Amino acid sequence: MAPTSSNQRTPSVWVRLLVLAGFAYAVVFAAALVDRSAFLPTGWLFDLAAQLTPFLVVGGLVLALGFLGTARPGGAIIFGLIALVNLEHYARPGPIAVAESVFDPSADRVRLLSANIFQRSQALSNIAVAAKERDVDIIGIVEMPEADCSVLRQMFGSDWFCLIVDKDPRGVRLNRVSALVARWEPSKVEVHHDQAFGGRAIIEARFSVGQESVNTIVLHPLPPGSPQYTDQRNAVLHHAAQLARGMPNSVVMGDFNTTPWARTYRTFHGKRASDPRFHSTWLTKWPFLGLPIDHIILDDALLLGEMQVLSAVGSDHYPLFAEILLPADE
Q: Longest C-alpha distance within the chain, in Å?
């Protein structure tokens, strides 16, 4: 009998790496499945895995091609099927508001701008320019730099409403500053604080527009970088979702630090302005490796007139612009 060559007996380094990558991928995929399920308890790592659904689609296809290229059709079939499972989930990001091509011209319109400006003064200046170009009415800004309302009024308008939230009720500085700027004075303003929020706050404001009102919620919870941060992020998101459900014509906007494929996002009712499958909002540095974690979510009664993910303004996030149409008067 002829001796077996070493290449036939021992897998190559590339095959070993491929098998190792496949094992790691399978673990992440299983964790994502747990978060997607409606009956299994989820947690920090499961949530992180579900956030990566777009990469799970691409990763499964790359592994399938890798196994196919090394003459291992069984592995190619397995990872090809897993990629299809992830693709099916990726194709269902939840309700999406589609811009109306025909709408009642008498309907009142409100133009919104939401931006995480990464504490950059230049990004704030660029947001003010973008707001003027699009005749924006209400602007939610998170990760504000050091600035007061006099600075914001110089940028947006001397008679504009301005609220900067940088401290909790005890006077302790929040770890991220948020602001709400609007061309109208709100009929109601409330800032929601809670120890469970991890040093973040939620801004709620009601604006009268014609015979209707628009209830705006601006938020920016912590990123899910640890189990504690994830719990604190979820506390903010769940509180905001409850607020929105109890208000007519509600709009929730900001940096949610979650994607539509994670379980926590599904606590929100309503429609997301723009399709997250085609527009990432973070990172601007590597847009092809980005994720849609910034959102504008509209109440079902509101219609979408226009929506854009704007160009980079000097932050690591892209701003979001949306024009909404209020229900026409009966």
A: 93
CA distance 144 to 138: 16
Q: How far apart are CA 290 and CA 293, in angstroms?
A: 9
Q: How far apart are CA 45 and CA 31, in angstroms?
A: 7
Quick one: tokens of 96?
A: 């999406």
Look up residue 262 and give its DSSP letter. S
Identify the burial level of 99 via C-beta atoms within 10 angstroms of its C-beta, where 0-12 means exposed, 13-18 middle and 19 or more buried: middle
In angstroms and rounded to an integer, the radius of gyration of the C-alpha atoms of the chain is 23
- Dist. CA 15–CA 192, nearest whole Å: 54
- Separation between Cα atoms, residue 224 and residue 163, nearest integer Å: 27
Contact 100, 306 (CB under 8 A): no
Q: What is the pLDDT of residues 121-149, one digit of tens each?
A: 999 999 999 999 999 999 999 999 998 99
The residues, any chain, with a CB within 8 Å of residue 231's CB and separated by 6 or more, are 196
Task: Average the pLDDT over 17-36 and give the result.
Answer: 96
Total-model pTM: 0.93
